[in-house]
Specification:
- The structure is a homodimer.
- The first copy, chain A, is α/β, with parallel strands linked by helices and about 450 residues long.
- Chain A folds into three domains: about 5-45 and about 60-115 and about 250-320, 3-Layer(bba) Sandwich (FAD/NAD(P)-binding domain), CATH 3.50.50.60; about 130-245, FAD/NAD(P)-binding domain, CATH 3.50.50; about 335-455, FAD/NAD(P)-binding domain.
- Helix content of chain A is about 25%, strand content about 30%.
- Chain A has helices spanning about 10-25, 45-50, 65-70, 135-150, 160-170, 190-205, 255-260, 305-320, 350-355, 405-415, 420-425, 440-445, 445-455, and strands at about 5, 30, 75, 80-85, 90-95, 100-105, 110, 115, 130, 150-155, 175-180, 210, 215-220, 225-230, 235-240, 245, 250-255, 270, 285, 290-295, 300-305, 335-340, 345-350, 365-370, 380-390, 395-400.
- The first copy, chain A, has a five-stranded parallel beta sheet. In chain A, strands 9-16-10-11-12 form a five-stranded parallel beta sheet.
- In chain A, strand 5 and strand 6 (about 100-105) form a beta hairpin.
């Protein structure tokens, strides 16, 4: 009877536990979690601010009793792991509330400790009330509470968390400004020529958008009042009123416990795992936001930090921990999507910047079209950009538009994962009906400029 | 200077002409068409009945002057080909209105003559007013006109044309009954367990649905009044009131001209072509609804009859006719989609019936889920069914649901066309965001039951 101990009840850890049980009903599963809740959707948190998701607890798929009574999982909440002994195969735990300590033995250990928000060194951003990060259910509760009395908010960082939080603060009725250090919005996901559509959409909804702009200081007394920003090019400064400051400036992994156990970190300083999600230490697996994994395109390790990858890694850990056999694909595509007001944006594979850093010069094709046939009313703008190498291997894509974006990026993800070439994509037999999509979907049309460019190079 | 003569200005023929010009600007292109219009969207016709597409001419992408002035294509409307001489490489044409005859020489001939509705031998269905087929713009105009004065309609045949026409007659305000000979709706596209959702949707919108039912006779005097139907199992009969009878009982190819030229028909009695869309006669190509093509899964020739395939074949003909090089994929997936009221239905590959006829016993997986994460409001029902062989090769899929159906079927189409296995599909890295789709899309979840069944067989 295998005993699987899992540290962290996020998407990765909980999925690992459920799949261990699904694979071998007789195994013992213990999940240890610092937070007072079992798994909830971290990605759903921004939507609790605006009450699009009306109750915080909606984000929780199962209550603690379900784990005990139905899943037969020993769930230890508000408990942290203080030590791990990979030779004795034990972890020491401490209940945060009661202080009670315990030593738990394991046959297999899964480290799914996740990550926490990075705190950039902005002057005055450390000691004031009204500054928030958005990572935990408690964070979301605090922001929702503060937003009820607030009129203005400044969001620092236009990554996924930043833009989603900004949207929901607008929906809540606040006047919102967003500040991004890099020259365009959501820079880890889409290139500037795609992000311009997102910027337009934000402005259409009354947001102020400051790109290529540094947040220099958070001003105020005990409580935040303003944010001082500076345009990185013109050096022009401005003070933005802020009852709330929300910082979305990336994350850092929790790796203390892993390092105590002698688990090796990779080049990115996240936990290194193989396709079976094994670390370098026997019987210790790792999954989710605390891990790095090879990028499908560049082959280089990346801190992937995505819910989809977390659950896939969790599944792999859970199956393998009880003697099953599961493997991650050799690389992660980083298929990513979000929606800001009415516009959807998605990507798979590296951005142009990321290509450049990896020393890859992709051939680029881009078109702007409609989601429906021209003659059918209600078609919506969609822009797609695709990357290929000179042999026609598809290296990535970005899509921004008002409908169908998420499933279209899945088509490219499937094409990439199965090695479809840009030449095959040109002839992909997509579906067509007047009310659905055109005979030549933008997915296939975008292959043409790439193929032309490749031909010209030869 | 190559002279390309194209017979038929439908999607296949017109696409051939435009791609010939795109490939070699100096070539001569003549398009000969029996109808008084250049290319229009045949698939859009049903939507003109309800005025969802407000003007008939919206369906026409370009007017005749565009072909002459911009595309530099010699468009001969209301003209039929009366003879073809493949040795002399000439066609004889006759203007339908003026009777003027002409002989036109060609270097390359493209036969894109399309198909016409089948007229099933229903008693009384030949000589009465009020009986319609829906194939041409003129048909749509006639139906729209008749529907203005009509209160009731009976649609015979629940294929794509039948159900789309039925929906639009309902939207127009008519009381509509649909009669299908086979046991379930849209039987060439989806299996009965998927079609039940479509039947519910139709009934919810006030339609009467009669499956497994024969239309025995059209009753009335000079004009239709009723349709006599008989349940094929119970033999129960009923008379349905009908100011309009619309027959959608399949199509037959126009092959007279091809046969005159010595062009070989295939096993289905449609025109046989190879991957380059060449017929057996040198310098004669064929494309679109008059052709058959090997099915991707069974390898057997099928009359494909789809707009997507027509334009792809047209592109191949056009490029090859002027000395370029293009090839169809070796088989057609028959990726198909439509929408009835609020429900969308899609398929790729054979139905269970079609598998059975081809002697294939697929492993079947089916799940019903939601388009969005459980915790996010507004997720909509989606049912997906997938077919694999015992080696895990994906053989087809059907999807019915209230959103995302068309692009999800495209994901499976991409997976099939690139040879992705059901094992790879299980791990496909789809995108995830609360407002878009769950961490495990139904696209990936549906692989699990198939994999379990395959494992059990081993």
């Amino acid at each position: 009877m295998t005993k699987v101990v899992i540290v962290g009840a996020g998407a990765a850890g909980t999925t690992a536990g459920l799949w261990a049980k699904k694979t071998d009903r007789k195994c013992d599963v213990v999940i240890i979690n610092r937070e007072p809740y079992p798994e909830y959707s971290r990605c759903g948190l921004p939507y609790t601010i605006s009450k699009v998701i009306p109750e915080f607890l909606n984000l929780m798929e199962h209550d603690p009793a379900w784990y005990e009574n139905f899943a037969k999982i020993d769930l230890r909440l508000e408990t942290e792991v203080t030590d791990v002994d990979p030779k004795a195969k034990t972890v020491k735990t401490k209940n945060i509330k009661t202080g009670k300590e315990e030593t738990i033995n394991y046959d297999k250990l899964v480290i799914a400790t996740g990550s926490h928000p990075a705190a950039p060194p902005i002057e005055g951003a450390q000691e004031k009330k009204g500054i928030y990060f958005l990572r935990t259910l408690q964070d979301a509760m605090d922001i929702e509470d503060a937003a009820q009395k607030a009129k203005t908010a400044v969001v620092i960082g236009a990554g996924l968390i930043g833009v989603e939080a900004a949207e929901n603060l607008v929906e809540k009725g606040l006047k919102v400004a967003i500040v991004e250090f890099l020259p365009s919005l959501v820079p880890l996901m889409i290139d500037p020529d795609m992000a311009e559509l997102v910027e337009e959409e934000m402005k259409k909804h009354g947001m102020e958008v400051y790109t290529n702009t540094a947040a220099k200081a958070v001003l105020g007394g005990e409580k935040v009042e303003k944010v001082l920003i500076e345009n990185r090019e013109t050096k022009e400064t401005k003070e933005l009123p802020a009852d709330i400051v929300l910082i979305g400036a990336g994350v850092r992994p929790y790796t203390d416990m892993a390092q105590k156990a002698g688990v090796e970190l990779g080049t990115t300083k996240y936990i290194k795992v193989n396709e079976k999600c094994e670390t370098n230490i026997p019987d210790i697996y790792s999954a989710g936001d605390c891990t790095e994994y090879p990028d499908f395109v560049t082959g280089e390790a990346v801190p992937q930090g995505m819910g989809t990858i977390a659950v896939r890694m969790g599944k792999v850990c859970g199956i393998n921990a009880v003697g099953g056999e599961a493997k991650m694909p050799p690389g992660v595509l980083l298929t990513r999507i979000t929606k800001i007001f009415d516009i959807h944006l998605a990507a798979v594979g590296p951005t142009l910047n990321q290509f450049e850093r990896a020393g890859i010069k992709p051939v680029v094709g881009k078109i702007t079209g409609s989601s429906k046939p021209e003659y059918f009313p209600g078609g919506k703008l969609i822009r797609i950009k695709i990357f290929s190498n000179e042999e026609g291997k598809i290296l990535g894509a970005q899509i921004v538009g008002y409908e169908d974006v998420h499933q279209k990026i899945n088509v490219i993800a499937a094409a990439m994962q199965s090695g479809m070439s840009i030449y095959e994509l040109e002839w992909l037999e997509t579906c067509y009906a007047p009310a659905s999509c055109p005979t030549w979907d933008v997915l296939t049309l975008v292959a043409e400029p790439v193929i032309k460019k490749i031909a010209r190079k030869k």
